[in-house]
Amino acid sequence: MSESILVICPDRPAHLMLALSALAALRTHHKGARVIGLCAPAVTFIAKTLPYLDDVWLDPRRSFWDVRGTLELRAELRSVTFTRIYDFAHSFASRMYFHLMHGLKPKPDALAAIPWSGDIEGTALYHNNPRKAGMHVSDHLQDQLKVAGVYEVLKADVSWAARQVREFSAPFRMNQPFAMLILDREGDDAWPSERYAGLAEWLTTRKLTPLLIGFQAHPLLADEILRRCPDAIDLTGKAPVIDTVFLSWAAAAAIGPVSAAMHIAAIANCRCVVLCGAGADPALAGPRGTRVQVLNRGHLAQIGTGEVLTLLADLDAGVGA
Question: Which of 25, 64, 89, 206 is placed for a possible disulfide with 152 were both Cys, Cβ 3.0 to 4.6 Å?
């Protein structure tokens, strides 16, 4: 491989899913390059499944004050001469990585020669659009790449999952119609458990099995839903990224807050009802797709089960998939 490219991945799982089209564009633009993704622990499980990254480096620091971890990271970052660095995280950690690689105050001439695509002013590929803060994450990254001379525009895609799968098994018959209830969320705002349970009960009346989906385990929430709807199947913490893609292709619908799993469902063209509350602005980071509907309130608790059912009124075992 003739060159090495570093991508600082978004540090939130949902935002990493929104970076898929940008990562695909980089992979196309830098053909033959070694593309390395630098990741926070929270997103590594997704990054390792993506076909766009040749290597995934984990930030080894356990905390901001982890001196040993910081020194290890600096040594790793300086062990490779990167042709370009693309910062897709736009975070405090990103700036720290920059200083670990290039020192605290590079001289202006040296700064101007650093091939850093992101928010470090004065670098060769500085993203200088004053409107970038108001852009959807996907549009922000596409505009950032355009400034860096990467003009490929590719649609977010999860078809690569079919090429990676080695085995797939589900604890139910796949010809049995089902809908996915996404229990993951980003932030502290949560949809009440009794509304999930009411929605699960309603799905069974439509002859649809409710699948409880989430990359994290949700034992208390899942147990509360299962108490009211024993026909539901709990797959939280059990269905990895590839399995979630396959389930999204087959599901009649997916319902839940903004999360990585909900983004997967939207990219897979599953019918989606996205619940947005505090800290989840759909205009900035919501799932996109022709089959995506959004309920947006100040808090998730303000979204009633009835509002969701209204959007799913035509849903039954033969509709939606």
Answer: 25
Adjacency order of strands within the sheet including 272-276: 233-234, 209-213, 178-182, 254-257, 272-276, 292-296
Are the beta carbons of 43 and 12 closer than 8 angstroms? Answer: yes
108-132 pLDDT, tens digit each: 999 999 999 999 999 999 999 999 9
Q: What is the pLDDT of residues 20-63, one digit of tens each?
A: 999 999 999 999 999 999 999 999 999 999 999 999 999 998 78
CATH classification code of 161-311: 3.40.50.2000
Beta-ladder partners of 272: 254, 292
In whole angstroms, what is the distance from residue 303 CA to residue 321 CA? 24
Residues 114-145, buried b or exposed e (16+ Cβ, 10 A)?
bebbbbbeebebbbeeeebeebbbbbbbbbbb
**Residues 106 and 78: beta-carbon distance below 8 Å:** no
Question: Of 22, 151, 8, 197, nearest to 90 (Cα)?
Answer: 8
Where in the chain are all domains bearing CATH 3.40.50.2000?
A: 4-157, 161-311
Spatial neighbors of 205 by CB under 8 A, at least 6 apart, are none
